[in-house]
Amino acid sequence: MKKLDLAPGAPVLLYLHSPREKVFGLLVALETAGVIVRGLDLLSLEDWMRQEARGETSGLGLLSVFYPMWRLERMERDESVGELEGLADRFHRLTGRRFVEEAGLGRRRKRA
Predict the structure, then answer these.
(1) Structure pTM?
(2) C-alpha to C-alpha distance for 78 and 37, rounded to whole angstroms
(3) Which of 55, 56, 103 is nearest to 78 (CA)?
């Protein structure tokens, strides 16, 4: 069994309540007060991935957001399992870029 690595820089899915939301992004910090993620709402993810694959620079973008711990129902590491593709892997396949670099937490390649 694989270790659950929830260190900063890990791609994660957050399940939140009040209001109900699902968020995908990179974990920036996990503390007793809450969690900081650089990402976006799952409802906007497909549109953002298509925008990035086309090389568009305006429109949707990633945000760094703090969510208080009382809103967090569940957090899971995003990863591919068998033939089910994780969201970060899907982003890489569609754009040719790594999500960690796009989120600004790794060495980012400049676009032409």
Answers:
(1) 0.85
(2) 13
(3) 103
